[in-house]
Amino acid sequence: MGGFVGYGTVRNDYVMLKGSVSGPRRRVMTLRRPMAPQTSRQLKEKIVLKFIDTSSKIGHGRFQTKKEKNQWFGPLKKDRIRREERLRKERAARAVERKAKTAKK
C-alpha cells in the first residue's frame, strides 16, 4: 500500500539491505563479494525474514493490502459511481444491440 518513503511502491525485483545506506535517496549501489571473509557472529547469522510491512510510512498507515482497506471501510462513494457508470454503459450497449436486431427484422 505505501511503498518506501521517498521512493514509492516497488514494482520490480529488488534487494533488501539490513541497516542503512548513506547518501541521497535512490542511490545507485554496487554490490560485490567481501574482500575478507566475514567472521563475526552477527554477520554469519542466518536471516529469517518473517514479515515485510507494506503499510504507508507517511501518515497513519494501517493497511497492508487494498483488499484489507476495502474490507475495513466498506463500499465508498467512488466505487458506487464507477459501478453505476459501468452499468449505464452496459445498458446502452444492450439497447444498441436490441435496436440493431429490430432493424434487421
Automatic annotation (TrEMBL):
PANTHER family: 60S RIBOSOMAL PROTEIN L3-RELATED, LARGE RIBOSOMAL SUBUNIT PROTEIN UL3. Keywords: Ribonucleoprotein, Ribosomal protein. GO terms for biological process: translation. It comes from Leishmania martiniquensis. Coiled coil: none annotated. GO terms for cellular component: cytosolic large ribosomal subunit. Transmembrane segments: none annotated. SUPFAM superfamilies: Translation proteins (SSF50447). Belongs to the universal ribosomal protein uL3 family. GO terms for molecular function: RNA binding; structural constituent of ribosome. InterPro entries: L3_arc_euk (IPR045077), Ribosomal_uL3 (IPR000597), Transl_B-barrel_sf (IPR009000). The lineage of its organism: Eukaryota, Discoba, Euglenozoa, Kinetoplastea, Metakinetoplastina. This is Ribosomal protein L3.
